[in-house]
Structure formats: C-alpha cells, structure tokens
From TrEMBL:
Keyword Isomerase part of the UniProt annotation: no
Domain Calcineurin-like phosphoesterase: 1-218
GN (gene name): sbcD
Taxonomic path: Bacteria, Bacillati, Actinomycetota, Actinomycetes, Kitasatosporales
Protein name: Nuclease SbcCD subunit D
SUPFAM superfamilies with a match to the protein in the record: Metallo-dependent phosphatases
InterPro entries: Calcineurin-like_PHP, DNA_Repair-Maintenance_Comp, Metallo-depent_PP-like, Mre11_N, SbcD, SbcD_C
The organism of origin for this protein: Streptomyces kanasensis
Recorded superkingdom: Bacteria
Keywords tagged on the record: DNA recombination, DNA replication, Endonuclease, Exonuclease, Hydrolase, Nuclease
Length: 392
C-alpha cells in the first residue's frame, strides 16, 4: 500500500504579514498531482490543518475545496486535529464526510476504532487517528495514569494495541499522531505544547505498529524507519530557512516493511538570513542570489544606520525582518547595574545615555544635546508654574 504523509498545513497563516493563501493553494494542487502521479492509495494528514481554532473564511473555503478534490480523486484520506485546530469545529459533519472517503478523526473516544484501508490481496491496513491530546482534557476519558503528554499518549496507544490484537494475524497498522516526540528537531514556528506536562514523549510509546505518521514539528525528519514527521509544506518562520519542504511517500509492504521517499513541495519564494554591516550587505556580490528571497537581515553596525529598511529594500525588495545586533569591541565587560549607571547622573546625562543606547553607541551631537536641554528646561518651568498655582 502506498501512503502520502503530510501535516501542518496551517491554512490561513501568513509569513511576516505576507499572505500565504496562494502558496497554500499551490501546495494543495501539488498534493493532488502527487496522488495521481504516484498512484497513492491513501492520504494521511497528521494535524494542524488550520492555523488557529477559528480560521478566516478564505482558509475554510480552501479546505472545503481540498476535501472535494480529494473525494473526487477517489483516494481515502485520514485527517486528525492538531493543537492549532479546534477539534470540535474541524470534526463537524465528519460522519457525513466519511461517506466520501474523508475520515476526520478529532474525538479521543474513537482512538481505538481504525479506518480500514483495503489492500487486496494482502488484507486491510488498520489506520488509527490520534488527535492532539491535551493532557488535562484527555486524562480522564482515556484513563491515563497521569496528566502528562506521555501518559495520555500511552493510554491512547494501549487502546490501539488492544484493538489490533483482536484483528486477523498479520494485519498491518498505521497511526497518525500530533505530538512532540523526543529526538525531533523543533523550529520557531511551532506553538509550545508544554502546558499540561513535559511535552516530549519517547518514540517507544508507538511500539507495535508498522508506521507512525507524525505532525507538529515543521521540519521533515525520520526518528526511526517507522516513525516520521512530514513537516509543514511551507516555511512559517525564518528558523526554517534551511528546511527542504516535502511530503513522505511511504510504501507499506505486505509483511509490514516500510520504505519512504521525500517528494518536494513547491517553494513560493526562498528564505535567506543575512548578517553583517549594512554597507557590506548592500555591496557584497555573493549575496546576489538572495535578491529575490524573503530576507531576514541582522545588522551589526556599531551605530544604527539611517533608513536601514528602505536601503535594504533597494537591493532586497522582499526584506521582511530587520534585527539589530551591534558589534561589541573586544574586552567589553558586562553592563553595570541599573542603579550604578544612574548614581550621580543628571536627567540630561541619563537622556543622552539612552539616546546612545538605542543608536548602538552613537552619542547625541551638539544640536541634539541642546534640544534635550531645552526640553528638560521646559518641563522644569512647567512644574514650577503648577506648584505656584497649588500654593496660591
């Protein structure tokens, strides 16, 4: 049986205020093309279909279109809810949608009931959907031993193994789960799920099944031959700039053996992280390859340059993020305490120090010092007038 494993679509998400809806639609076009080109038998979507619990209408419409296209393709699809999704909302009409071959698994109560994927003459493949399990909410329904991610996933897998034990010998099994499994490499764009206990669970929790299709981490990775993250189809933070965005094309052999290859997703625009002084970034010919990329620039100029974003945009028109990290001279010690820095200093000196701080060390010039002096004089004069009015 051939499976296409994907996850973390995050429909409706933007990238530094740039809409990704067209790029997400292009990915779904690619998904359907991959299904046809590679004769996929079933599609697995391991959670975070949407980016938030109440997604924008355009994202809902895109998802609706994807469901219709998957149903028209006649390929069974199994989806679970992730920590970004509202399980109740995503699961609306799941019973009706199931008739079209789309299986939405969002309710922990159904964990032990698999979707049976026919694979003649080798027998059915039992596909179990484990939606994201918030420990505080899932502990009691699952009878977990503790309010932790490990405990609730262990309880869920006990139900999976119990059902599998009652099926014909040699029945192959697949589990979809949305979790942070130990050994996985995270990025900046995954929402923290440590609330409710330590987030990471060991891969051994999933022992006893042939393939585990994971969602949550945005980088494609194989923790073992049988336990894999597909990663997100698009980059959702600059921390993913080195990611190769793919889906997993998984072949499940009649004896349960697993082979997998990565299918590249379309890239709307490459990412680049640049670092250096502004003038160097603008002049370096080696950076020409990044001129069409979405850019995060970290400027190391000792003093903050004038109009840095506008100047960067002249060469890198798709600059989206600007960070300042001024160079420090060798031997700089740590800053003194706040109280020590203020001790014995006048308001004027404190203000001048603040200006120098926000400009990366460039102290105010004579004109700026005069403007500060005048401002403080005006404040003191105004305070004196108010005091006389009160005394009078």
């Amino acid at each position: 049986m051939r499976l296409l494993h994907t996850s973390d679509w995050h429909l409706g998400r933007s990238f530094h205020r740039v809409s990704l809806l067209d790029a997400q639609a292009a990915f779904l076009d690619h998904l359907l093309a991959t299904v046809r080109e590679h004769a996929v038998d079933a599609v697995l979507v391991a959670g975070d279909v949407y980016d938030r619990a109440v997604p924008p209408l355009a994202a809902v419409e895109l998802f609706d279109t994807a469901l219709h296209r998957l149903a028209d393709a006649g390929v069974p699809t199994v989806m679970i809810s992730g920590n970004h999704d509202s399980a109740r909302r995503l699961g609306v009409a799941s019973g009706l949608i199931r008739r079209a071959g789309i299986h939405l698994r969002t309710d922990p109560a159904g964990i032990g009931t698999p979707v049976l994927l026919p694979d003649p003459p080798h027998g059915d493949v039992a596909c179990y959907g484990l939606p994201y399990l918030e420990p505080a909410l899932a502990r009691d329904p699952l009878g977990a031993a503790a309010t932790t991610h490990r405990a609730v996933l262990a309880a869920a897998m006990d139900r999976v193994r119990a059902d599998l034990a009652g099926r014909p010998a040699g029945t192959r099994s697949v589990v979809l789960a949305h979790a942070f499994v130990a050994g996985g490499e995270a990025s900046d764009s995954e929402r923290d799920i440590t609330v409710g206990g330590v987030a990471a669970v060991p891969a051994e929790v999933f022992d006893g099944v042939d393939y585990v299709a994971l969602g949550h981490l945005h980088g494609a990775q194989a923790l073992t031959d049988r336990v894999r993250y597909s990663g997100s189809p698009l980059a959702y933070s600059f921390s993913e700039w080195r990611h190769r965005k793919t889906t997993w094309l998984v072949d499940l052999a009649p004896d349960g053996g697993v082979t997998a290859e990565r299918i590249d997703c379309p890239v709307p625009r490459p990412l680049a992280r640049l670092r250096g002084r502004l003038d160097d970034l603008l002049a370096d010919p080696a950076l020409a390859r990044h001129e069409d990329a979405w850019v995060e620039a970290t400027l190391t100029d000792p003093a903050r340059p004038a109009d840095p974003m506008a100047r960067l945009a002249e060469r890198f028109p798709h600059t989206l993020s600007l960070v300042f990290d001024p160079e420090r001279t060798e031997g700089d010690g740590g800053p003194p305490s706040y109280a020590l820095r203020l001790r014995g200093r006048t308001d004027q000196q404190i203000a001048e120090d603040f200006v120098a701080h926000v400009r990366g060390g460039a102290a105010p010039d004579a004109h700026e010092r005069a403007a500060l002096h005048g401002a403080f004089a005006d404040v003191r004069a105004d305070a004196s007038v108010r005091e006389r009015e009160v005394d009078g």
